[in-house]
Amino acid sequence: MIVSPLATGVKIAMATIREHKLRSFLTVLGVIIGTGTVIAVGSIVTGLDSTVTGLFRNFGSSTLIVFKFKAAMRGNLSTEELRRKPLTLEDARAIAERCPSVQHVSPYLFPGFFNVSRARYKGNDVYRVELGGTEEGYAANGVIMLEGRFLGDTDNQRRLPVAVIGEDIKKALFPNVSSVGKWIDVDGHQFEVIGAMQRPANAMPGQEDLRILFPYFSMRKMFPNAQEHMLVVVAYPGKLPAAEDEVRTILRIQRRVPHDRPDNFWISSAEQMIEDFRNITSMVALVMVVLSSIGLLVGGIGVMNIMLVSVTERTREIGVRKAVGARRFDIIIQFLTEAVVLTGLGGLCGIMLGWTASQGARLIFPNLPTTVPLWAALLGVAVSVGVGLFFGIWPANKAARLDPVVALRYE
């Protein structure tokens, strides 16, 4: 039976690894870390992509978000953006009255960017609650009630002291009882809870639902100095592009923007926000892959170093093989196979490391559906094998060029 040089090389490589376990592990440690990083980043980015894509699409295919500057996926704001005047309730009313493609507009009043609020019920406190004042139309943006009802137009017009709370506030303040009809203290003001909302499907992984929503005018009464608004605009089915054009026109008129100046506000649809998010995640993934390549480079140098040591240790063996008829090609295949087996095993260990990291991320963020995509696993193996081939060429060529007479005399 004739044994192929490839099979022989694999057997020799496995024997060498078994003989020098610690040395082999340290040699491919960089490959393990680099491959593990590729797998972990791939799984987390894939999970984030599916979650955040669902997040924005849950705003609805007919929904526009309007704010005074680009509020999502941003770093530092420009001086011009910071100086922009806030959107107003009058802007919302103008859009509702003068945009035929808009079904309804819901203003959303923020208490202030630096406001830190607290909700209390019978000695139990919840901090960092997210307060907002809005109207009945906000419920059309995908609000699902766990119990009770949402805010109504009567609540708003009569400025009633009522509120609806988020799921995590209900769990914290009313874990085993209904929240409806209970009175809570919010920053020293008393409000009756009329409903509890389910955590939105568009919540980020690990994000708590700490919303407390009041009728718009009740919120205005509670925070008379609040100015910042967000507008949630819902277009008629199939009218989203027309609605966006109409909203932009009305807001430019309302905010007196000259015809030769850009908008001093931001309008975005779900698809635009998804595109912005993917631009960010693609850059993050690219940076992580570049960083992981450093580990692969270190691992590759280690492989090349250990293969050069192996060539020196086995000089006499190489001489014997060449003396009995082994060709230069056979020697090259032998050493390249050893390098590929070594880095290939490192790549498999890296896949396990990356999978473990993705499972750890899922434990920390239960809402993050991390999965190891097939492309990441294949890329990890391909990269580790490529490292073995690239960094094994020089040692293999060095071994193949040895003079058999000189090699046989080597001690």
Overall description:
With 411 residues, this protein is α+β, with helices and mostly antiparallel strands. The chain folds into 2 domains: 5-54 and 276-408, no CATH class; 63-270, no CATH class. Helix content is 54%, strand content 16%. The chain has 14 helices and 11 strands. The strands form 2 sheets. Strands 3-4-9-6-8-7 form a 6-stranded mixed β-barrel. It has a 4-stranded antiparallel β-sheet with strand order 2-10-1-11. Helix 2 packs across helix 10 (270-313), helix 3 (29-57) runs antiparallel to helix 13 and helix 10 packs parallel to helix 13 (374-400). The longest helix has 44 residues, at 270-313. The two termini are 33 Å apart. The model has no long low-confidence stretch (mean pLDDT 79).
Helices and strands in order, then pairings?
Blueprint: H1 5-19, H2 21-27, H3 29-57, E1 63-67, H4 79-82, H5 89-98, E2 102-109, E3 117-121, E4 124-134, E5 145-148, H6 153-157, E6 162-165, H7 167-173, E7 183-186, E8 189-197, E9 211-215, H8 216-222, E10 229-235, H9 240-254, E11 266-269, H10 270-313, H11 315-323, H12 328-364, H13 374-400, H14 404-408
Helix pairs in contact: 1-12, 2-10, 3-10, 3-12, 3-13, 5-9, 10-12, 10-13, 12-13
Task: Report the span from N to C terminus.
Answer: 33 Å
Count up the domains: 2
Total DSSP helices = 14
Question: What structural class do the secondary elements suggest?
Answer: alpha+beta
Order of helices and strands: HHHEHHEEEEHEHEEEHEHEHHHHH
Q: What's the Cα radius of gyration?
A: 32 Å
Q: Overall 3D geometry?
A: elongated
On the 0-100 scale, what is the average pLDDT?
A: 79
Q: Can you list the strand order of the major beta sheet?
A: 3-4-9-6-8-7
Question: Stretches where pLDDT falls below 50 for ≥5 residues?
Answer: none
Beta-strand portion reads 15-25%
How would you name the oligomeric state of the polypeptide chains in this document? single chain
Question: Could you give a short account of the major beta sheet?
Answer: 6 strands, mixed, barrel
Tell me roughly what share of residues is in helical segments. 40-55%
What is the number of beta strands?
Answer: 11
